[in-house]
Amino acid sequence: MTLDAFLGHFNYWVFAILLMIGFYAVIAKGNLIKKLVGLSIFQSAVFLMYISMSKVEGGTAPILQAGVIDPIYSNPLPQVLILTAIVVGVATLSLGLAIVVRINERYGSIEERELLDAD
Amino acid sequence: MTIVFALFLLTLLVVTALAIVRTKNLFVATMLLSIFSLLMAVNFFILDAADVALTEAAVGAGVTTVIFLSALRLTSQFERGTLASSRWIAVIVVVITTVLLISGTINTPNLGDPNAPVHQHVAPFYLENTEALMGFPNVVTAVLSSFRGYDTLGEVFVVFIAAVGVMFILDARQGTGPEYELPVDKGLKHHLIPRAVGGLLIPFMLLFGLYVQFHGEYGPGGGFQAGAIVATAFILYAILEGERTALKAFSRNAQMALIIGGSTLYGAVGVVCMLKGGTFLDYSVLMEDPVIARQVGIIIIELGVGMAVCGALLSIFHSFAARKPVEHAK
Amino acid sequence: MIDVAIEWLGNTLLIVGAASVLIGGIGVIRMPDLYSRMHASSLTDTMATLALFSGLMLHSGFTLATIKLMAIMAFLLLTGPTATYALANAAFRSGIQPPSSTNTNNEEKSAP
């Protein structure tokens, strides 16, 4: 595997590793808040993949500059998608945490094993 | 040299994520998640995404941490063990999926390849036509507010729904006794240094939020970032002065009015465009010159987005902060 | 001539700032108890901020970027030590004692 292939794909490998770390926290941890933290890591990994796809070598941020001959800009479209996704992510995270707070008040615990045994 | 820095940051991300999953103290996990979001924001900046980096820093490292801490106050801080039997199955599934994902990236284009398919079809249209159709430099704002304005309208409604949902779940009355009233504030009254520094910083944060709101067309910025920054300023005020004083400064009704006003403003601009003869959210019919008309339309809807995001984040924070922690006999 | 001197001074300040960050990091790992570790990390808050930002300002010359760097430096100098103070205060209130001759290991207070 050449250095060129390694450097060209390292972002995507880090994306795969972060995705699976977050997913492991969701499925293997018993605490509800830890699951939500894992979900947050999962989301951030997906953002990393999209923004890595939008990078163009030798480009700058997609803000048009006057008077520059033959400029190269990075792709603006994935950045727009991820801007929306970040705010939606925090909205759904806060809803999830609100539900966990109510579960704690009702059952007295947020551990999955105790919640399954209680009902 | 930038490549070494980028590789180092990505490795730090993986190390931080591993530390977050391994620790049993949820407070430590929240703080590490904040560091993770900040590292991700720096990574976005290295990958030329200035708007996204600003949003991730403001929303991810700022607001998400505060909401997690508010939730931790209402639940417990420590985590007990995992389900012992299913842990090995989880590890095997995770390892197999990682290998499959990495093997799926073998023949994909390299990072930054200008001939990759993602750069070929739609993006050159936006990059070439923004100057002619909109007249301002920030292509990301042009695509977000005008070329793909429908998606942003849907996203404002999602934020609205989340704020209302948290209000339904957490503003339900806990009980009728006097211990459920909001306490007389101490805030951080006995801590002189945070109050002095916070009092110095809050006006500048509000000013910066306003700057980011109205300069979204000429540099990184726009409604989302500005809403998050202004909401953070008010959250800092609430932490320093206490819940009751903060609600006197900016009441729940005012927050709800901001959310509703922002969403309605956005929809109203679309309807006015229809009334003037164009299609929904076609700003070019608002005035005689279509370029100026698009700029006017974009400023108004960005204001709507900023109002909605600010009101929603503040409302979510106050829903968490006003709830009393309930003691359970274990 | 003066340009070369300014550039050298800027580079020296940047190296001093980087060395301060490194020393602060080593201190955080190697110090024995909580309060000494916070003291070591506050080196990063103040000395590194001053040195790094002064070096960057010298490299930028008299442009708008220098004023922005000055504003960021003022913000960091305000908020860094405040965070260290809040952390130390919270640690003291939750019972972690600073080391003394009878308490060399940050033991908890015996009475609430």
Features of this protein?
heterotrimer, A: 119 residues, mainly alpha, Helix Hairpins, elongated, B: 330 residues, Four Helix Bundle (Hemerythrin (Met), subunit A), 2 domains, 12 helices, 70% helix
Q: Which secondary structure elements does this structure contain, and how are they paired or packed?
A:
The complex is a heterotrimer of chains A (119), B (330) and C (112).
Chain A: H1 3-28, H2 32-54, H3 76-107, H4 112-118
Helix pairs in contact in A: 1-2, 2-3
Chain B: H1 2-22, H2 26-46, H3 50-74, H4 87-104, H5 123-133, H6 139-147, H7 149-170, H8 192-214, H9 223-241, H10 243-249, H11 252-275, H12 290-321
Chain C: H1 2-30, H2 34-60, H3 64-93
Polypeptide structure, described:
Chain A is an all-alpha fold. Chain A is built from four helices and no strands. The longest helix of chain A is centred in the last third of the chain and has 32 residues, at 76-107. Chain B has twelve helices and no strands. Chain B folds into two domains: 1-80, Four Helix Bundle (Hemerythrin (Met), subunit A) (Up-down Bundle), CATH 1.20.120.1200; 136-330, no CATH class. Chain C is mostly helical. Chain C has one domain. Chain C contains three helices and no strands. The radius of gyration of chain C is 19 Å and the shape is elongated. Chains in contact: A-B, B-C. Chains A and B meet through helix 1, helix 2 and helix 3 of A and helix 1, helix 2, helix 3, helix 4 and helix 5 of B.
Concise description?
The complex is a heterotrimer of chains A (119), B (330) and C (112). By secondary structure, chain B is mainly α.
